[in-house]
Amino acid sequence: MIYCGGETMSQNENILTWEQSIDALNNERITLQEFINMNASHTLYYSTPVGENKDGKTIMWLINNSRVNMSFYPTFMTRELCRETLSAAGRINFIIIEGTLESALSSLDTNPILQNAGLLIQDTNGRLAIPPKMRVEK
């Protein structure tokens, strides 16, 4: 059960918007796992993990956080933010994939390097990091 605004609801009702669930997560009314489960079908935009930079080198496009010794696969709340961020980072010739939180997390299991990566969800208001190995519970 999730407690929100004085009311108790089951996860199956999924009545919180993305913004409301972020607020609930930030205020510790739900756990990160509950957040992932209730937002599994939320649309995210991302590209393939391997691609070319402006120098023509093929590299793995992950965001590394040396403070916690983790790498994160970047995803975005909008197609435009995805395009702007990848272009600003020097990535060229990329495609943008429209998927869900669940599909983005599942894609991490397709590559041995990505299996140890978390997921970074970026929007214009900030970032949400999902640690490695967290997936939608069914």
**Approximately how much beta-strand content do the residues carry?**
25-35%
Q: Number of helix segments?
A: 4
Q: Main beta sheet: strand number and arrangement?
A: 4 strands, mixed
Q: pLDDT average, as an integer?
A: 89
**DSSP strand tally:** 11
Cα distance spanning the termini: 16 Å
Task: Describe what this molecule looks like in 3D.
- With 138 residues, the protein is an alpha+beta fold.
- The chain has four helices and eleven strands, in the order E-E-H-H-E-E-E-E-E-H-E-E-H-E-E.
- The protein has helices spanning 18-26, 32-38, 79-88, 101-107; strands at 2-4, 7-9, 43-46, 50-53, 58-60, 63-65, 70-76, 91-92, 97-100, 117-123, 126-130.
- The chain has a four-stranded mixed sheet with strand order 6-7-10-11. Strands 5-4-8 form a three-stranded antiparallel sheet. A two-stranded antiparallel sheet has the order 1-2.
- The longest helix has 10 residues, at 79-88.
Summed up, what is this model?
The protein is 24% helix and 33% strand. It is an alpha+beta fold and 138 residues long. The strands form 4 sheets. A 4-stranded mixed sheet has the order 6-7-10-11.
Helices and strands in order:
Blueprint: E1 2-4, E2 7-9, H1 18-26, H2 32-38, E3 43-46, E4 50-53, E5 58-60, E6 63-65, E7 70-76, H3 79-88, E8 91-92, E9 97-100, H4 101-107, E10 117-123, E11 126-130
Parallel strand pairs: 7-10
Antiparallel strand pairs: 1-2, 3-9, 4-5, 4-8, 6-7, 10-11
Which features would summarize this protein structure in a list?
single chain; 138 residues; alpha+beta; four-stranded mixed β-sheet; three-stranded antiparallel β-sheet; 4 helices; 24% helix; globular; disordered N terminus
